[in-house]
Amino acid sequence: MPAHPGAPGAGIIGPALEHVLREVPAARCRLYVLTDLARPAGAAPLAAALLETGAPRQVPQSALLHVLAVAEPCLGRGPGQGLGRRLLDDLLMELRADGVRAVWFLPGPRDDGLRSLLGNAGFRAATNRGFSRENERTYGYDEPEIRPWATWLFREL
Predict the structure, then answer these.
(1) For residue 106, what pLDDT band results from cuts at 50, 70 and 90?
(2) Cα–Cα distance measured from residue 121 to residue 124, given in angstroms and rounded to the nearest whole number
(3) How much is the pTM?
(4) Residues 6+ apart with CB under 8 A from 4
């Protein structure tokens, strides 16, 4: 679904959504949500992910995962166990069907859980990001100062 602050699942992602929308045109952002169809229609989603893909009406070759989060009540063990992995599997399948051939993620200092999830899903460290010049302009400017220690995680689809 298109990404905007009022979209279902936007609350799970939090301020990351607004930050990304300030940097990236909304037409290039997708919001994926995981819901429980057994719950009432208005029930909040269980997990959400925000990705950036290529320009509209183009088949994107790669996507950039900005955030994947599980709702607070569903974190940890119990009925919510595995929701992040389930959402990740679903969105990778959807991206593959849309022609995306690679997904990238730049982990931050508080992304240990997501880094582990992505590693278990086949993401590996990489340095050649494979983005277009437009994406490089968007993301390259702050990397040396803010995240010099970071290694991109990458997975071919």
Answers:
(1) confident
(2) 9
(3) 0.76
(4) 10, 21, 26, 31
Tokens read off for 56: 């509209």
Domain edges within the chain: 10-156
Q: What is the pLDDT of residue 142?
A: 41
Distance (Å, whole) CA 101 – CA 75: 30
Which of 100, 99, 152, 155 has its CA nearest to residue 129? 152
- How far apart are the C-alpha atoms of 143 and 149, rounded to whole Å? 9
Superfamily holding 10-156: Gcn5-related N-acetyltransferase (GNAT) (3.40.630.30)
Give the contacts of 1 (CB within 8 A, at least 6 positions apart): 7, 8, 30, 31, 32, 33
Handedness of CA 121, 26, 108, 112 (dihedral sign): negative
112-137 residue pLDDT tens: 888 888 998 998 887 655 544 444 43
